[in-house]
Amino acid sequence: MGFHESPNTYVGNVTIKVTDLERSLSFYKEVIGFDVLEQSRHKAVLTADGKVPLLTIIQPEGVQAKQGRTTGLYHFAILLPSRKELGKSLHHLLASNIQLGSGDHEVSEALYLSDPDGNGIEIYRDRPSSDWIWNGDQVRMGTEPVDARAVLAESDEEPWTGLPADTVMGHIHLHVNDLKAAEAFYHDGLGFDVVTRYGGQAIFMSTGRYHHHIGLNTWNGTGAPRPAENQVGLDAYTLVYPSQSALDEAAVNLRAIGASADQSENGFHTKDPSGNKIKLITL
């Protein structure tokens, strides 16, 4: 999965807020297939390989249920290494009576679901990048029904045993309140390129000609309000830069466009124009 390693910039850990940590932990272990890396009373860090944190769930004091029509998380996307693993996950999700959506996006095949608090999740596999169709700097993406029977057949009836160790956080898709401002922030500030436009309401951005590391949409409405600080949804997500020089350049570029880039112990903190919090690091 070379799109999720140096020299690319990609999504690392995603942190979400939930109303009941134990309930969410059970869901993410038993339904999604994560393992626990660290756990405390109000926080759990989840992994697929026992080493790399991919998802952190927190239960803030006074947490509020998810409210609609705000900026924030649309979904985070878990990338499986093969269609066979997607088939195994689909078998398991169906056996678990989980309500699912799906989409064949030409570059990928995806399953969609929500956690107990309504946080959006995508589980997907990529088609080989050699099969993606590019028109200049734009990759062709669409949405057609997934051939579920063919995906299920790929599993060879092997049992589901959780997420494979080489699972990664494939991308994150966000609600924003101003698409033009968001594009400028992610391109001019963070260094991502637009690779697909869906009319005037969604764009998909990446580094290294991936089909997308970042999705942005205004489907909750242009000018949508930010969620309350302790509301269920996205707390923050991490972008991993390939080097210290690339990380420092991003901080300089953010400040040049008037965005924040506050130094932290191992990188920088910033917010996009819709209030989505981002941690910038390098490994």
Automatic annotation (TrEMBL):
Originating species: Rossellomorea marisflavi
PROSITE patterns (UniProt xref): EXTRADIOL_DIOXYGENAS, GLYOXALASE_I_1, VOC
Protein name (database record): Glyoxalase
Keywords: Aromatic hydrocarbons catabolism, Dioxygenase, Iron, Metal-binding, Oxidoreductase
Domain (VOC) ranges: 10-126, 168-283
GO function term, MF aspect, one: ferrous iron binding
Cofactor: Fe(2+)
Key word Isomerase present: no
Gene3D superfamilies, per the entry: 2,3-Dihydroxybiphenyl 1,2-Dioxygenase, domain 1
Keyword Oxidoreductase: yes
Family: Belongs to the extradiol ring-cleavage dioxygenase family.
